[in-house]
Design brief:
The protein is 76% helix and 0% strand. The protein has 71 residues and is mainly α. Helix 1 packs across helix 3.
């Protein structure tokens, strides 16, 4: 489960950086690299993986409470 969490965390960070580029410069790196529009299957897969990673991290946070105080 540790490797899954590391992969999910990495994908969420990459997704956040893509959103930073979109917000600051109106530049979509994923669309540039893998295509844009409704026919860009690879872009949709990447966006889906980032979303699934975010859901995994929410599950991890609820299940394991990594921010709890250590007694």
């Amino acid at each position: 489960m540790k490797i899954t969490t590391i992969i999910a965390f990495t994908l969420v960070i990459i997704g956040a950086l893509v959103w930073l580029l979109i917000g600051l410069f109106n530049f979509n790196l994923v669309a540039l690299l893998f295509g844009s529009g409704s026919t860009a299957l690879v872009s949709r897969i990447i966006y889906s993986l980032v979303g699934i990673s975010a859901l995994w991290l929410i599950f991890y946070w609820v299940a394991y409470d990594p921010f709890r105080a250590i007694d």
